[in-house]
Amino acid sequence: MKSKITGLILAGGRGTRMGRVDKGLQPFRGTTMIAHVLRRLAPQVDTVAINANRNLPQYQAAAGADTVVMPDQMSGFEGPLAGLQAGLHYCATELLLTAPCDSPFLPADLAARLYAALETENADLAVAVTMETDEQDGGAPYRQPHPVFSLLKASLLPQLEAYLATGARRVEGWHKSLRVAEVMFDDASAFRNINTLEELKRHEPEAATPAATPVPAASPAGDPDALPVDEARRLIAQRVTPVAATEKVAVCSALDRVLAEDIISPINVPAYDNSAMDGYALRGADLPLDAGAGPVTLKVIGAAYAGRPFEKTAAPGECVRIMTGAAMPPGCDSVLPQELAAAIGESSVTIAHGTIRAGANRRFAGEDLTAGGVALARGKIMRPADLGLVASLGIAEVTVRRRLRVAFFSTGDELRSLGDTLDTGCVYDSNRYTLFGMLTRLGCEVVDLGIVRDDPAALQAALRSACREADAIITSGGVSEGAADYTRDIMALLGDVAFWKLAMRPGRPLAFGEVRTGDGAAWLFGLPGNPVAVMVSFYLFARPALLRMMGVDEARTMPQTTRARATEAIRKRPGRTEYQRGIVSTGVDGGAQVRLTGAQGSGILSSMTEANCIVVLRHGQAGVAVGDPVDIILFDGLI
Ligand code: AMP
Ligand code: MG
After folding, report:
1. What is the pLDDT of residues 178-190, one digit of tens each?
2. Which domains are delineated in the chain?
3. Which of 166, 301, 331, 439 has the most CB atoms within 10 Å of its CB?
């Protein structure tokens, strides 16, 4: 997806409210505002360009030499559409993603989510939308589109130019003539733009750590104390950092490990021009190119095999029998696939007019990878294709981050281990098994600390030993406010652990923070006790943080969402995020469709085994009607 998208930062405004300096160039948190936007946008797209009409050298300096900075083609500060026009002229990819230069907090999944909507809704343009509340109208919620945060097809350029030719300049007006997919983002604050010097000053301090961060005001329908899920995720992401230690491993052992260094290609791949087909290598100039030209017969002077090149130069009128992967013989630049030959003689081949173009079926040296270029970037989880790619470069060992060690235990007096008899009022401990599975799939080394009773001393001992052994600790149960929920107190005693009531379902309570003992420190994720809530909160909160600790590039830590149409109405109230278990399938129209698994109680684990995706109903979203597109997270790839 990333390779299909060019990013465009719109910095073409006059910036008058900020004095003489352009908005994008204003100093902000140690650098310029546009550098923040660039930093957030770059990992999501293939290349980034900047549209600005003044101070072009300053923008170039702020962005670095690799970024193209270009002015409008129209004159006289004609607004964002003029910048878009310039961007579309520049854009060499299928899609263009726009963001304004004064939005330093833009979401890390902006491209991914807009792309998913564009694809599933077959739209021309996808635009971000958030829910806001109208203070004038007693806090009534309304949808706020953010038209300059959009992903659009580059092929819309003629349509845009036709619109501009009518004299119209409004972005919203242009959108009316297109098929637009609206994508709801929970975190309205990510779209904040900074318009005045006073706002700039207000946002200057870096966000504080979780313990000290005031809980933001909840939305009207929600629990006033509940923290929106995006906020919790951001607070966690701000604190964790990758483990520093690395190790060198053989290519095969690097599967599912996180690359700690860029892999620079030592060679061109392929190393030489070669044939993509079995056939005849020939000189393009010998082809019967003119319309009406008769067939041409070429003399076959030898054969080239993969691994056994033909080294003589083919003269005009000559060709060489060639196999797939064989080096192109000197003088030849095109390959006629053997099945397209008009006739094949003892030592000749005949080719009719119009069969192939000059240059056809020739693979160029370096077309896969260029010597000196980054073949794989650090922060990538090594998949099978990556192992192959590394091998194709002749590299036998790669540097990966050391494995993350994660300790986990279950809390609760009612829990019984496998093999124990199940006394009245007791349940078998299932959370340790789901956690074992989820952590193992993530490639962590796991330390299973068993079941810990609802007893302060036992909890303290378990946390201390987990701290000694692991980088992170995951517990389940005991974080809500029940009479036997001691975990909270002990966690708070051993470190700075924040307890959140999250505006989500399932899985309201969550604890996060650092636990420290004399022997070590570890990040702690205190998950709720209910089995489905454990899994959902692991996937949504613990997993992104663990991936970051493993060294995964931040842009790739969030679960990927895609879209499907709901086959049933889903009830939901705004003010919290709901994760429902779904079954996605292909509908009669070939598009993805999703239904719920039925009972959605947070203790019903069978619904989790039945499901193949999680349906995400965003914070601000109300109910879903039949046929509405909804966001889904596929288990495939997640688990
Ligand atoms: P708690 O958050 O400790 O109040 O637990 C909430 C619910 O989840 C209770 O019904 C517990 O019995 C259940 N529960 C907690 N831990 C586990 C576990 N490890 N396996 C299965 N159920 C659990
Ligand atoms: Mg409990």
Report:
1. 999 999 998 888 8
2. 2-216 (3.90.550.10), 247-268+370-401 (3.90.105.10), 274-363 (2.170.190.11), 405-556 (3.40.980.10), 561-634 (2.40.340.10)
3. 439
